Amino acid sequence: MSLSKPSGSKRKITDEHRIFQEKWELEFFCCEVKEKIICLICNSTIGVSKLYNIKRHYEQHKTKFDQYEGLLRREKLKELKSKLKNQQLMFTRPMQENESAVRASYALSEMIAKHSKPFTEGEFVKQCLVKAAEIVSPGSVKAFQNISLSRNTVAERITDIAGNLSDQMKTKAISFTAFSIACDESTDVCGVAQLAVFLRAVDEEFNIYEELLELVPLHDTTTGEDIFNAVYELLQKYNLQLSQLSSVATDGAPSMTGVNNGFIKLLQMKTRELCRDKPDFHHIHCIIHQEVLCSKVIKMERVLKAVKKTINFIRSRGLNQRQFTDFLRDLESEYCGLPYYTEVRWLSCSSVLDRFWKLKEEVRLFMEVKGQDASLLSDQDFLQDLSFMVDITKHLTELNLKLQGANQIITNMYDQVKAFKCKLMLWEKQLETDNLSHFPTCDVFKKSRSFPISYIKYAEKIRSLMTEFEQRFKDFKLQENNFALFTGIFSIDIDKVPSHLQMEVIEIQCQAHLKQKFDDVGAQDFYKYLPVQYQHVRKFACEIISMFGSTYQCEQLFSLMKGNKSPARSRLTNTHLNAVLKIISTNKVTPEIDNLVKNKIFQISGKKL
To answer: Residue 335: its pLDDT value, please?
Structure first.
């Protein structure tokens, strides 16, 4: 017997009434919730969305509910639907409250980290929140009590946030066109060497990322090889390719710059091994550090030693300091004291010398009252040297401040140095003719003397400072043509342009609309508007923009490190220290709190305050 063939025509779902129809709500007191049919009378789920099944289920309640007709039936339907919604809220509201509590826990933990507070501060913050709620909104007390802010929870939240920031950087690294790193090393309160590694990267859309990669503890030696191993491991961890490495900025320490086994040498060797056709990356000796080293050539130890000795006599003894403050008050002085001189803090030198100069007469009188030798403060040669030091250190400090700060373009930093070198040339010529136009302290002192004095001899100091600037900034001078191309692509002589860029630069220079855009937005922002057909110039611009000019970010991080891992918090682990500093120093990348909350099992605080 042959099997019968299936019928060629099939019944449609609409023919079987499988699609829920709105009229069934009123007719059978049911509704559709998340593609399921729910009976509003008994809250049962009707298995199949077919008219027959729904009607058969309603037969169980027909006797009781057929009495509702017309408007009464509509009101009864509204009542039953409202009842179902309230029942659903009974289950969803606690989940929403728990989610909000976890979200608040993350947000407050991030604030605790950003303000360098101990993890135990979370419990105090919670007490404050609950107390405020009891006064302002008693009905919200339970919601605040549910926020978990114990020490361990805060530590866990901070670690999660730091991990999320790292994950984002790993993902973004795929789109980087060029990147640079800045490295520096310092010792924490426990004697552990900590290596700070910052990243400055540019993606294909010219978005700039300047972020801390990690603070890496070096538990043993801190040789160039140790630093290389730590940095290379980080580059691999964050999916950063050596083929895209544009430059490395360091403080110029021997472990960094050693000829044979320095970190830079080892990294260059690794780059040549993996990227045979790539030119060597540029090594940048921190421009701020070099500026400070240049200032040492002035050699005014006699002045600094005398100022330091006098200030220490006044400041190191509590009685002397109180008496000096009273002495200044009695003389109705504009100032109430002298700041400390700290040699390692170059910026303090200018302010200390300036204050000492303004209080020199008061200091001399006080020292004489205390029976101390104050003859130098009456010596004309010493005062002349001091006045020159006040002015020149002020000029150097102004340059130093211009070079500081995050998110600086290296070309702008080098322009500041070049401008200062031009100023030095002007000052040298002016001092040779005893012109003190730009040395106001010297000018005032000269005019206050009843006998003629000359500042011509200080032209030699300016000359030696100028020579030192020329010597120190040789590595930047090697990049002058590249910097000139980046900042003046429409005016540069084509013969000074690298051969692989010449054809594209010629085309760019001949396009008026691009020249207009360059004039409108400036060099830094111009290249993001450059058509993608000029890929070599775009890549060149990314490399310049990505370059660090200094290790300023590292120095700032070490100040934060010492504030967080202080003697009072010496038990802070390296993992937690790195997490805290990562959150504090994050720049463009922000924590994805929503994703962290979704991945966390909602657990409210079990501690009632």
So the answer is: 58
Give the three-state DSSP class for 564.
helix
Taking each helix axis as running N to C, give the angle between helix 480-487 and helix 410-432, from 0 to 180 degrees, rounded to the nearest 10.
Answer: 110
Residue 221 tokens read as 């030696």
CB atoms within 10 A of CB 574: 16
**Helix or strand or coil: residue 450?**
coil
Q: What is the pTM of this model?
A: 0.80
Please say whether the beta carbons of 169 and 585 come within 8 A.
no
What span, in angstroms and rounded, lies between the C-alpha atoms of 377 and 306?
9
Cα separation, 427 vs 431, whole angstroms: 6
**What is the DSSP code string of 279-327?**
PPPEEEE-HHHHHHHHHGGG--HHHHHHHHHHHHHHHSSHHHHHHHHHH
Asked if 395 and 423 touch (Cβ cutoff 8 Å), the reply is yes
Q: Which residues, other chains included, contact 258 with Cβ-Cβ below 8 Å and sequence gap of 6+?
A: 224, 265
DSSP symbols for 78-116: HHHHHHHHHHHHHHHHHHHHHHHHHHHHHHHHHHHHHTT
Using DSSP bridges, classify how beta strands 30-33 and 245-250 pair: parallel, antiparallel or unpaired: unpaired
Quick one: average pLDDT of 85-101?
68
Strands 30-33 and 36-39: antiparallel
Distance CA(142)–CA(607), nearest Å, equals 11
Q: In a 10 Å sphere around its CB, with 0-12 CB exposed, 13-18 middle and 19+ buried, how is residue 560 labelled?
A: middle
CA 482 to chain centre: 27
Per-residue model confidence as pLDDT tens digits over 214-271: 999 998 899 999 999 999 999 999 999 999 999 999 999 999 999 889 999 999 999 9
- State yes or no: pLDDT of 127 exceeds 60: yes
Do 587 and 209 meet the contact criterion of CB atoms below 8 Å apart? yes
Can you give the pLDDT at residue 560?
94
| C-alpha distance across the termini of the chain, in Å | 82
What does R_g of the chain's alpha carbons equal in angstroms? Answer: 36
Q: What is each CA distance from 232 to 77, 216, 222, 523, 546, in whole angstroms?
A: 69, 12, 15, 32, 19
Q: What is the dihedral of CA 217, 219, 223, 225, to 10 degrees?
A: -70
Q: Residue 408 burial (CB < 10 Å; 0-12/13-18/19+)?
A: buried
Q: Which residues touch 338 (CB under 8 Å, ≥6 apart)?
A: 311, 314, 315, 324, 352, 355, 356, 359, 363
User: What is each CA distance from 251 to 196, 210, 425, 551, 604, in whole angstroms?
Assistant: 12, 18, 27, 7, 48
Instruction: Please tell me the least confidently modeled range out of 40-49, 158-167, 422-431, 447-456.
Output: 40-49
Please write the tens of the pLDDT for every residue from 447-471.
988 888 999 999 999 999 999 999 9
**579 SS3 class:** helix
Residue 310 · residue 256 · CB < 8 Å: no
C-alpha 540, offset from chain centre: 25
